[in-house]
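User: I'm writing a tutorial on reading structure tokens. Could you give me a worked example: one chain, its sequence, then its tokens, then a sentence or two explaining what the tokens reveal?
Assistant: Sure. Here is the example chain.
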Amino acid sequence: MAVDLNLIKTIVVVMMENRSFDHLLGYLSLPPYNWPNVDGLQLDPNWIAKASSTYNGNSFPPFLLTDPYDLIDADPPHERDQIATQMGTPVNGVYPMNGFVTNYAAAKGAKPVTAGSQPPVMGYFTPDQVPVTDFFAQNFAVCDHWFSSLPAGTQPNRLIAMSGFTNIDVNRNIPPMPEQELVYKWLTKNGVRWRVYHEGLPFFAMMLGWIPDILTEQHFRPLEQLYDDVQNEPPDEFPQVIFIEPIYTDAPHIGPSSDDHAPSAVKGGQEFLLEAYRSMMRVPDVWKGTVMVVTYDEHGGFFDHVSPPALQTDPPPNTYDRGFSTLGVRVPGFVISPFVKPKTVFNPVLDHTSILKFIGQKFGKNGSYSELVDTRKVGSVLDVLNQPIPQPAPGIPSLVPYLAKQPAPGGFTPGTVPDSAIPKNFQRALDEIRTHPDNTTGKFDDLLAAFPPQPLIA
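And here are its predicted structure tokens:
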């Protein structure tokens, strides 16, 4: 039975960084969990052999990662050419998905890969390591065929998630990010109230046209303000679409990041996701009209056994030369709402434009975001909703036992990042902002004061 769109008042979008479905949720199909309708990990030797990655004549199967608190040793490369290596050479349109270790071995800071070693890109977690995402799975909807929109890196995927297209196919290491219209402007044109709540530097500070709005806080507010806004803002002022952003590993910041981008640990992301949920569920009248989507921009070089479906994405005119023939690697996808039944598993194909389709259905003229988005052969988040009568929010799980297991810090100073995690892209963007002509009068100094310059590692 369909959910009445009129009952949905607020759409919340949370996009994390760089983890795959098998890495975070593949355990659901294993004992003792045994979810029969999840395309996850298996114990069958033939399946393990097929899902393993090969490197230098050795095979590296998936294995359990037991430490969610510590940095991993490297950030696996994940631009489009490296992702092609990870996916392997297709046979009859099916990719073997066996090049993850080959790709990881070339990463700066990666430990030597030898026979019998366990490269972290082949690791997966279970509820002991990721209790908040497990809480989401147990109480809401898991989308086990949610794919990143492109077999490419962060910036192209975030652009297509926020526009329906991207003018770049690889990350731009030299700022600023090229301007293109984002969903923010679409919402404004359609008279939809929207806001970004950010724990660190907003992602689209890299697109200089958004700097004035970020500075005035007209649409951009610190994450800690969300908790109070949910409680106190009148319904006719509270945003109808909310974007919640973590602290990005690749951005200048103080203390640990919370976006899950390797080499960062996943503990910070678990705390951040719980805070996002806590804020949105605390007022029953707000919760009963909320649909929150949590996904990851791309897989970040971590293994996944599912070959991405064919889907042609052509470049816009006068941009990059090569189009894409498939979706990107599979990533976790959750729909967290009073309009979904607990332990829902949604199997049809979704990608990041499924969020834009949903926004268009709710707020667009004739129920459409754009013709380009309409033509993508993926479903909508609306398709996942299966509970017509909104249900009360499950209580917040305690993270005290989880955090109590964290070992004392050692070899890592809070507030710093290792060489392999130096924030190249965002640091260069900030440097560009500092030298921008509009900053000669100190126009952007209030924003930049929170992010002092840091040395770059080439």
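What the tokens reveal: The two ends are 55 Å apart (CA to CA). The chain has one domain: 5-404.
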